[in-house]
Amino acid sequence: MLTSISAIVFCVLTGIVILFQGCLAAGLPWGNASMGGKYPGKYPPKMRFVAVINMLLLTFMGALVLSEANLMFPALKSVAAIGIWVIVAFFVMGTIMNTITPSKIERIWAPVALIQLISSFIVAFY
After folding, report:
1. Which of 8, 26, 66, 89 shows its CA 20 to 30 Å from the CA of 120?
2. CB within 8 A of 102, min separation 6: which ones?
3. How confident is the model at residue 60 (pLDDT cuts 50, 70, 90)?
């Protein structure tokens, strides 16, 4: 039960981040809230492409978490067994980076990343 709830929490938060990345890719002027605020306003075309790649990676991470929690995607189970620990490590770094970012607005993502870290760790550990 805890694993399932954690996987769902992870995926809901990841969905929010995917939507944010989609907004960046679409040209919304939210660059201050990403990448340390290096690209204020609208992302340049190169970074819009990066945002799309981020969306795809986050979607794959969500699929791996759901697989490891035995909720969906059983075919990914062998990849998920190792991938979940990569996801945990990714969100350790993400939590740190979103906490120390020079962009004050970007720090709103630190609690999101922390909850993603905790929820992915619960799925990995249990």
Report:
1. 26
2. 36, 37
3. very high
